[in-house]
Each structure stands twice: as structure tokens, then as C-alpha cells.
Design a protein that fits this description.
The complex is a heterodimer of chains A (581) and B (317). Chain A is built from 20 helices and 16 strands. Chain A is of the alpha+beta class. Chain A folds into two domains: 154 residues, Beta Polymerase, domain 2, CATH 3.30.460; 312 residues, Cytochrome-c3 Hydrogenase, chain B (Orthogonal Bundle). In chain A, strand 14 and strand 15 form a beta hairpin. In chain B, 69% of the residues lie in helices and 0% in strands. By secondary structure, chain B is mostly helical. Chain B has one domain. Classes of the chains: A alpha+beta (581), B mainly alpha (317). At the A-B interface, helix 8, helix 9, helix 11 and helix 19 of A face helix 5, helix 8, helix 10 and helix 11 of B.
Amino acid sequence: MPESIAAELSSRFGEDTVKAQVTRDETPTFRTPQEKIVAILQYLKNEIKMPYRMLYDLTAIDERAYKREQNGHKPYDFTLVYTLFSFDRNEFLRLKVGLYGDFPSSDTITHLWPAANWYEREVFDMFGIRFNGHPLLKRILMPPTWEGHPLRKEHPARATEMGPFKLFDEKVDREQSALLFSPEEWGLKRHSDDADYMFLNIGPQHPGTHGVLRIILQLEGENIVDAVPDIGFHHRGAEKMAERQSWHTYIPYTDRIDYLGGVNNNLAYLLAVEKLGGIDVPLRAQVIRVMLCELFRIASHVVWYGTFAQDLGQLSPVFYMFTDRERIFEIIEAICGGRMHPNWFRIGGVAQDLPKGWDTLVKNFVQYFPAKLREYDKMVMQNYLFKARTKGIGIYTLEEAIEWGVTGPGLRACGLEWDMRKKRPYGGYENFAFEVPVADNGDCYDRAVVRVEEMRQSLRIIQQCLEYMPEGDFKSHHPLATPPVKQNTMQDIETLIHHFLNVSWGPVIPAGEAMSCTEATKGWNSYYLVSDGNTAAYRTRIRTPSFPHMQMIPLISRGYTVADLLSILGGMDYVLADIDR
Amino acid sequence: MTNPWWIIGGVLFVLLNAAAGLIWLERRMLALWQDRYGPNRAGPFGILIVLADTLKLFFKEDWIPPFADKVVFVFAPAVVAASVLMSFVIVPFAPGIVVSDMNIGILFFLAMSSLGVYSIVLGGWASNNKYALLGAMRGASQMISYEVFMGLALMGVVVMSGSFNLSVIVEAQKNVWFIFPQLIGFVIFLIAGIAETHRLPFDIPEAESELVAGFHSEYSGMKFGMFFIGEYLGITLISAMVVVLYFGGWLGPSFLPPVIWFVIKTFAFIMLFILLRASMPRPRYDQLMEYGWKVLFPLSLLNLMVTAAIKLWLSTH
């Protein structure tokens, strides 16, 4: 397949248009010249047979500090990375465009994919790369008054490199005036032909946004004319931190990306690291990982379930569901010691073997939970008012979903049976029997239906883990597994040295690049890692599902009312930390 | 005849304490239904939380936002408490225990509950806050429309008893409570009553997940306390009215004094209000209006016409 796509592009756009790149993952990767990228993308999206309909990710790499030979090309200053996905081929495609100069620019692709809008803004915000023709190229994650572009290599990564913080009066004034709201800045009109619009700030502090999210509503009465999400309040620079942390010590940071998903984040990160290092994970570790991931999937969905009902005014379910989540956390706590952020997976396996008695805990939960799910069905899903508030609200079609990069339950609610655990199995999911629930209407109610059914399927997977938990190692014996298995260190000097080095400065992961893609609780979660053969990643890109989902808010909330916006937000199941990283 | 001041004082004392006690009761009951403890620290079963809450409200800074319309902002919360308390004037708790046995009791009740709308509208408007404004808009339209069906539903009872006087209405239920012949009227009155007190599922003017706190977003301290007390008084009022109009008021087997029967019945409806809050989601504002005008309105008209027709037929035969 990679050869054929390369051949196809060469025959169409001329020889030397695409240069294949060697990567450590299975994604075909090509370098293309900057002037042809828009044409190539447009061809790949619209004209090619079995097209790449989804813009999965768009990001950049600051190459200026990359000291190694890279696939034989001249060193670029910056590289733009476009990741596409084709549902027909079940394949990712990565296109890279090299840029020269300190503040280079490239052409926008927002006319091809509206979803590129936020991605390009993010690249501009983080790298200072401009996109010609972008409709609203402004900062997205950093505050408008920020100086510098954080993911550039010269930007300091911690406060001690920045000099002492001073807040002069002028700076206070500048920051204050940046907070003033002006509709024109966001591309909003103040008046229609016959009326003035009302602008309502939902957030950043608002009970319905589940975190620090601001949505600017342009209202006519209670009807939403337009909505503009303003994100970045939860930005912690997780991608920048990855460039300082060792491969091993970055794991706890991943826990906090989608803070409801727990170990699902660890898994997405480690799959990419393990691809880079060529590490195989023993079977027992795989099954432990799958079991914990599915427990966390239920925990995350349960939080969504309760808060969704609460958003629609139902006060009680959230209490029952948090109680159930507590039961899951009892298991997690017994196994990992932690609760929301267990930091439990390790390069090459998991931190420790399962404790004695884990099976009783899990068995009790698997027996207990189905009855509760049935109860919640009656309480929430079959409630007449709940249906009235969610059916036919926030509809998007399958085409729109793919166009905007919607993944996970939101995609399956449009009728496409597509679950990465089934379609591109990873981490041992191929060994499990489960179904992929779908629904057809693509409204808030159907998204809920899919998630509720997913919990049942997760229980099935956990049941299988319980019954077929294999014996064996919980961590690989590969030299890069961190921390290395310790048993032999007291007898064998080689292992001792290895242990010492891997623990003190961390493992040295071979140079190269790799991307993982997991079906996380909210959609597809990817870590795209570039290593220059050091103890820390050269570039870490975290592609989270909530980011493109939030970008869709204007599209799916126009024409509805303020109350419906809460149904839409609740039905979307996003986490602010997952959007802002 | 006893001194009317005793009755007024007694009614005020019982009502205000009941409203305060309801705060505790509601929190405990919600907690019970939601598998948690609720307030259980201050005093036996946490009952002193009422005292603590009241003290807290009294000592909070009495803050008026600089952008608010001061006079109206202060006036609005007084309206809600006053109008509900005034309504209690006509409620007969037991034979002889009524502040004013007016012969236009029902009309007075309707008039007073209509005045209650002003507190929402004025409070929302004077706050000069967009959330409050949206809440006030919702509140105004919701309460004005539900007022209509409430009045119409009541007319069935008036037709059957032939009087606007509530004591006469209770006496007219000696043989059979009006809940049986006036079932539809009762259901409509109850729904309209919930909407009137803007409690879940009809707490659309507040809708905390959408409008933060709706019309009283800007209120704090005792002014907020007035809205708060007004809400609980409203629940008590609607429950009492349901009992008087449809459940025979103080009537009941003679082993308990009439006033106790009245309290028990009213209490049952208060519990219903709390249970509703624990179980129902909130409809959308336009769904509520549609339901009101397209379902309840024709139904209440029909109820009135049928009741009147039967009454007419019975009186001519």
C-alpha cells in the first residue's frame, strides 16, 4: 500500500514529489515540497480512490536543534506534519513539509478541512509559523499577551530560565485591556438587520462547562446565532514538558491529559515509546493493561453519565454514579495505589504484578455493575424529559463527523462501526471478544446510547481478563524496560549497571519517530514521538479527541437554544485538560 | 372568638419556622434519596443547620452590585416573601383558625400569586446581569402562562362548591373530597403550582447548569435569603392550597384534631415537591410553554366546561 500511494502521487505530481521516510511505526510517511502540499492534500481528500477523508492531526516540529541525520534530507528549520486517516483503507498517512527560516509561513488548508482551523492556530501559537489565508489566525492556547511561542526550542521551559517575574503597572493595564471583550475580534457582528445581538459569556467559570472553558454566545433572545469556544485556560504545556522529562518520568504527566481516562493515557504514550524502542510487552502485562484501561473507561463513562443527567437538571443520578465510580477506584487503588492518576504502566509492562485477591475485587464489581446499569437505564435513558432534551439536539452527519475529525462514541453515534480496538488492535485487544455499539441519528441521545452500551462491553472485556489472566512476567526483559526487572541486580553486575542507568538518567530510546493510536474513553488518542536518541523526547505531540470535538461546537449549536447548548456539551463528553493539554 | 392577633402571630410563627425547617428537611431527604448523609453535624440530625444557615445569611455582607438599580434591587426580594405570606391570609387551617375568612378567598390567592412574578422580573431586571435577565424573561413568561391554567383549573372547584370562600369549599367536601370529581383539575393545579413556585422540574428561571442561578445570580446575604424563604413558603402555600381545594382541608376522622389533619396532608405534598426535585430532569423552556398552552390550557378549559355542564344538568333535574 505505501508503495502504491507513493507511486500514485509521483505519477500525478511528478517524480520526486514524495520522498518516503523511514519511521518506526507502520504509518507511511512522505516528505513533500511546500508548494505542492495543498494540491496533494486536496487530491488525497477528494480525488484519489479510497480517499483520506479525515484530517487526523496537524502539527509541527522545531528541527533547528535536531543534531542527527534525518532520512538523508537537508536539515530544515521547521517541519509541518499532516496526519490523514482513510476509513476505506484503514490506514494513516503522514505528510511532512520542511520549512526554512526563523518565522516561516505556509498555505492554509482550512478551505479543504474546516477542522484545520484550530490546528493551524495551535501551530501558529506554539511555533510562530504563519498560515497564509487562515480566516482568524490568532493565539488559541496561550493568552493573547504572551510573548514568544512555547514549543520553539529557544523558548524557556521553566520559570528559572525566564528571569524574575515582574508585574509593572503598564503590564497590568495591558493584561486587563486584553480581557475586554470585543465581538469583532472573534468575527462576530453586533447587530443583525433589525436587532442587536446579546453576547453571553458562558465561562470560564460556569457550572455547566465542567472546567475552565469559555464559550461566547451570540444570542437572539435565547436562540444561539453563533458560538465561539475560547480554550487554553487549562493549558499546562504538557508537550513542552515532555522535552525535559525522561521517557520514564513523563508517564505521570500523561495521566493528567484526560484526567478521567487514567491509564488509557499511559497506554497511548507507552505504545509509541515501545514502538520506538522495539519493546515487546509480555502477555500478562498486556492483559493487566487492558483490564485497567477498561475499568477506567467505565469510570470515565460513569462520570459522563452522571454529569450529563445533572446538566439536564436531574440531581440524583450523579450521586449514584459517583458511588459506583468509587467502587472502581477501590479496585484501582488496590492494584495501583493511586486513584485518578495511578501512573501505573511502565515502559515494557506495568509497575508491579497484580496483588493477592485482585480477582475477588474485580469479580464482585463485574457481578454488581450490570444491575446498576439497568437501573440507570430506567432512571435516565428512558426518562421522558431526558429524551425530550436530547433527541434531535446537536445533530451532525457521518460526513460532517469525518470532516471535523470526530472520533470515538461521537463517530459511532453517526452509524459508523469504527472502534480502533477492533479495527487496528493494539496492546493485546485482538485477543478479546466484544461488540462495537453504534447508533444512527448522531444526536445527543444516540451518543449517550453508544456510551452506555460501551460500558457493558467493557464489562465483558474485564470478565475475560478475569477468566483468562495468563501467568508470566508483568514487565519485559528488554534492556530498555524501565525500571528494569530487579531480581538479578544483586547477583549480576551488568544488570545492576543497567538498572542504575535506566533509573538515574532514564532509558535512551533510539532515534526515530512513531505514533500510537488508541481508542481512549473520548475518542482516538495519539502520541506522536520524535526521538533524537536521547533520554528525553525531542518532540512529543499529543493528539487528543476532545480538541476537534470542541471545535465543532459552533457548527452543532447554531440555531438551538442556551438550554440545548448544555445538552450538546454534556453529550459530547470532553475534558478540558484533554483539550488544552 | 379569639383575638385575631393571636392567629396572625401564630400563623406567621408556624410558617416562618416551617419554611426554615423545610431547608433542613429538603436537604436531609435529598441526601437520603441520593445515598449520602446531608447535613448531620449541627445538633441532633443536623437540625441546627437551619440556625447556622440563618446566622450565616444575616452576617453576610449585604452587597449590592454597583451596576444594579439599587431601589428595585432591594425591593424585589421583599415582594416574593410578602406576596406569599399575604396569600396565607385566606388559608383556613381549621375551623376558626384563619386570618381572614374572605368570601373572595380564591381571587385573593390568585392576585397575590400573580404579584409574586414581579419579584422575579424586577430582581432579574435590576441586577443588570445577562444571566439574571434571561432568568427573569423565562420566569415571567412561565409564570404568566401557568397562572392562566391555575385559575381555570380552580374554577372547577368553585363551580362545584358555589363559592370563592375557602372555608365554604372545605365544608363542601364533607361527603366527597374534590380530588375525585376534579381529578383533572387537581393535576393541572398541581403542575401549575410547581411552575408557580419554580421548583424542579420547572426551575427554568434558575436552571443552575445553564444560567448559574438565573434571576437571583447577583443576590447574596439576607436578600438571597428572602428568595430562599419565599421559595419554601411558596411550596407550603401550594401544598396547603391543594389540600384545601382538593383534599378536604382539615376534614378527617375525629381521633385527630382538624388542624393536625391539615398539617399531615400539607406535609405529604411538601414531601412530593422534594421527591420531584430528587427525580426529574428539567424540560427546556419552550417545551414547558408548549406543554402548557397546547395540553394543559385546552384540558383545563374542557374540565371547566364539563364540570359546569354537569352542575347545570344536576340543578335542573
